[in-house]
Amino acid sequence: MNVIDFKPAKCSHCYRCVRTCHVKAITVKDQQAQIIADSCIYCGDCLNECPQDAKIYLSDLHKVKTWIAADVPIAVSLAPSYRSLFHFNEPGQVFDALKRLGFTYIRETAEGAALVTNEYRKLLEKKDMKNIITTCCPSVNLLIETYYPSLIPYMAPVVSPMTAHARMLKDEYGPDVKVVFIGPCVSKKAEAYDNASVPSADAVLNFHEVKRWLRSEDIQIRSCQPLPIDGHDPHINKLYPITGGIIASVNTCETARSDTYRKFSVDGVKNCIDLCDNLSNGKLSNCFIEMSACEGGCIQGPLTGNTRLARFQSRVDLEESIRPIPAAEELLHFDTENLPSSKTFRDRSTQQELPSEEQIRKILEKTGKFSKEDELNCGACGYQTCREKAIAVFQDKAELSMCIPYMNEQAHSLANTILEASPNMTIIVDRDLKIREFSAAAEKHFHITRKKALETYLFELIDTDDFEWAFKYKQHVQNKKIEFPEYGFTALMRLVYMHKEDSVLAILIDITREEQAAQQDYMKNLETVEMAQKVIDKQMMVAQQIAGLLGETTAETKVTLTNMCKTLLDDE
User: Fold this and answer.
1) pLDDT for the residue numbered 76
2) How high is the pLDDT of residue 307?
3) Does a structural domain hold residue 555?
4) Cα R_g (the chain), whole angstroms
5) 268 contact partners, CB below 8 Å, separation of at least 6
6) Of 387, 449, 517, 545, which is most buried by a Cβ count within 10 Å?
7) Are residues 318 and 428 in the same domain?
8) Which residue ranges of the chain lie beneath pLDDT 70?
């Protein structure tokens, strides 16, 4: 079962999760990050490190609410780190708040830790194991089973406090009761649902989910009644969630104080990996080792909703609330004689094919790394070295495009090619009208080199009224014809305001020839009109002359005919 998933639309190709993951259990396909379930140790670091909140923790909350709605009896196994992560006046107020949500019984997981402490005591007494690694942290267990299977003989064959407590509660309340573990851990869910694991909790909720649930029900913990816990106070075993807490509990046993094992604690995935490397090399022996994937222990779990700055305060608050009663005395309250507590761990490692040196070299060359000097090893892709990234590409865990310096170089190269090859002038200026980009065509038309232009303000070259308007109103200027008589050309200018960069991109198309051709066409048309006008004027003059001659002849004829008619009439 995959406990962590990704929201594809949110992944922004920052590769921060890959950088964070110490076991590189994240693959990138089609520029989207995905969890490799068989490789993940569910430490949860990627949940907190993702700046886009693209990781999803698959919740059991709906399942738990369904049980409550159906009146199914539910026993809560409450991780002891609640004491440092919930805000209350008395711890009993937390029990009341949880019962108001609908839970039937409230018990502390540290009861199961008392049983685990006793099992560790037995192992220390037997002295059969060369080294003993505590197995309370499921992430550490997965780390060893998956990546260091040779160390499995060092793993204490004991269940975790959560599993031990779940068995205790089912034994006490009956098999029909549902056990819900509430804690700060991601890997607890993987442990609970691991088919190869022993039966454990029926559901897992984290503190962050419970806090949101309480807010949605308008339940204020400090306004609740301080109820007594339904079980027994496990005292010293409540120190399990802090670094060194397991050792502190074990040391309260008389035999543990007198054994010959050297005891020390290690927290944080990277430190655990370093220790496993040392153990694999046979450099340590006769050690009882408390290992936790979270720095500072479970109180700094990935799902606490707490900040790292509160880590030390949380530890102090938890230690102050505990009475140092020996762990052996706490077991007197529990009937654990027939309660199974052993667990068998298995080899989960997977063999991945490794590329040859030639295959690595070919992959490196695809991102411009032709020699050792080209391998920057910057870690931006999430892998420490370019060779590690090349191996991940071969294993289909990474993509070539994850090499940010190479892609940046390619982008600049493409942009420079476009700027150099384009016949159009391209200029980019910032709000101060400082020139930030200047294309080859712009160099030619404005008679200034790019190097010099990048040291110049635009107003030193041309009028900037249109640019200032674009900045003021954050609008574009579309295809405006501008004459540059001092530079001897005319251009069609388009200004694009770029919101993210708060800059203006200017694209100027040289239309000088078109303007000259249009001017020539205009002059030709003007000459034609003038010639036509001359012809018209000449024709009008001829017509007027003809009309004048015709008018005189007509008048003379009229006079002659009139006189002739008058003479004829007089003769009559």
Assistant:
1) 96
2) 47
3) no
4) 43
5) 292, 293, 294, 295
6) 387
7) no
8) 1, 9, 195-198, 234-235, 254-258, 304-340, 411, 414-415, 522, 525-526, 529, 532, 547-572
pLDDT of residue 416: 72
Given 296, 323, 350, the domain boundary residue is 323
**Angle in degrees, 0-180, between the axes of helices 138-147 and 269-280, rounded to the nearest 10:** 40
Helical ranges in 75-226 per DSSP H: 82-85, 92-101, 110-126, 138-147, 161-173, 187-192, 207-216
Give the length of the chain: 572
| pLDDT value, residue 309 | 44
Question: Cα separation of 21 and 71, whole Å?
Answer: 41
Question: Could you give the number of structural domains in the chain?
Answer: 2
Single-letter amino acid code for the residue at 476: H
What's the number of CA atoms in the CB half-sphere (13 Å) around residue 149? 8
Q: Is residue 96 in a domain?
A: yes
pTM beyond cutoff 0.85: no
- The CATH number given to whatever domain includes residue 478 is 3.30.450.20
* DSSP track, 213-257: HHHHTT--GGGS--PPPSS---GGGGGTTBTTHHHHHHTTSHHHH
In this structure, which amino acid lies at residue 2?
N
Q: Provide the token pair at 517.
A: 């051709």
Domain that holds residue 441: 422-510
**Does 395 map to a domain?**
no
